[in-house]
Amino acid sequence: MKCIMVLSVVLPFVLYGTSSAGIIDPCKSKCEFYPSVSPTVLFVCPQGDTPSFSDQGWWLSLEIVDFNSNPIADIPAADFWLIDCDPALDLVLCAGSASSSADASTNNQGLTTMSAGTMRAGGCADGLSVVVQGFVLEDESSNCDIYCYPIHVRSPDFDGNLTVDLVDLSLFAQHFPTPYDDCYDLDINGHINLVDVSMFAQHYFHECQ
Ligand SMILES: [Ca+2]
Ligand SMILES: [Ca+2]
Q: Would residue 13 count as lying in a domain?
């Protein structure tokens, strides 16, 4: 009888401990945003030939833990990616989760960064969240709301069909230099001018690789 009682106390703990080990806890895991410019811009192209996150003035530090708060090592870099988290949700990603990645797999402390890569995408967004193996990371200090960083994503693929073509050129022409629409202000300096034209021209006819 005594033995059964002990088992009934210990077994759920063992089962819980085993079943939740290694499973990502999106709320206890941490994400830190390090911007060095304001506003924070991410200029992207479907082809992926734009400067890295850090070269555009920001990076992310990530710490991935399981439901027991233990770090999860060896999560592949490719299992991390960024998604649109603004209300419009009109960012379009090349190959979904393959559109961006972390710099390296997580180390023994569950740590990695997103700094050296860029994103392959079209459309326009004013907020980004981090996804790891399908879990959107959440902020434990604010009731586990998702982290949604004010990163302004701009792409010369304005219509988000993942090709920079005549349709995008036509859309651009309709907004140059006015009426002002911040999705066409590729460097987000408040004006749609020759700098934006140059940024557009460098990526004309680019598409997902
Ligand atoms: Ca397009
Ligand atoms: Ca501009």
A: no
**Tally of domains in the chain:** 1
CB atoms within 5 A of ion ligand 2 belong to 185, 187, 189, 191, 196
Q: Which structural domain, as residue segments, surrounds residue 32?
A: 23-201
- pLDDT at residue 18 greater than cutoff 70: no
Query: Residue 147: which of 74, 89, 60 has the closest Cα?
Result: 60
Q: Which runs of E-coded beta strand occur in 36-150? A: 40-43, 58-63, 80-84, 92-93, 111-114, 121-122, 124-125, 128-132, 135-136, 138-139, 145-146
The conformation of residue 160, written as its DSSP 8-state character, comes to -
Distance CA 19, CA 26 (A): 16
The predicted model scores a pTM of 0.90
Q: 68 C-alpha to center of ligand 1: Å?
A: 45
d(CA 112, CA 78): 12
- Residue 95 domain-assigned (yes or no): yes
Instruction: Report yes or no on 153 lying in a domain.
Output: yes
Predicted pLDDT of residue 8: 52
What is the CA angle 94-99-104, rounded to 5?
165
